[in-house]
Amino acid sequence: MPRIDLSKINRRRQLLKHFAAAGLLGSAGLSGLIRDALANGEKPIAPGVQKVTGIVTINGKAARPGMSVGTGDTINTDSDSEAIYVIGKDAYLQRESSTVSFSGVSADVMRVLTGKILSVFGKGNKKLETATATIGIRGTGCYIESEPRRVYFCLCYGAADLILAADPNHVERIETKHHDHPLYIYRDSSMPMTVDASVINHSDEELELLESLVGRWPPFIHGGYRY
Question: Is 0.90 surpassed by the pTM of this model?
Answer without folding.
Answer: no
